Amino acid sequence: MIDLTERALADPQMKLELPARKMEDNS
Questions:
Q1: CA dist 21 → 1, 13, 18 (Å)
Q2: CB-based burial of residue 27 (10 Å sphere; 0-12 exposed, 13-18 middle, 19+ buried)?
Q3: Sign of torsion, CA 25 27 12 8?
Q4: Contact 22, 8 (CB under 8 A)
Q5: 2-24 burial, b if ≥16 CB within 10 A, otherwise e?
Q6: What pTM was computed for the model?
Q7: Which top-level group of life is the source organism from (predicted)?
Q8: Distance between CA atoms of 10 and 8, rounded to whole angstroms?
């Protein structure tokens, strides 16, 4: 599991990619 949440906290722009990436990971 990638720590996207931790990165999202440090990178506000990543927060927008977080949901899209999470959905792709689930696929």
A1: 12, 13, 5
A2: exposed
A3: negative
A4: no
A5: eebeeebeeeeeeeeebeeeeee
A6: 0.23
A7: Bacteria
A8: 5
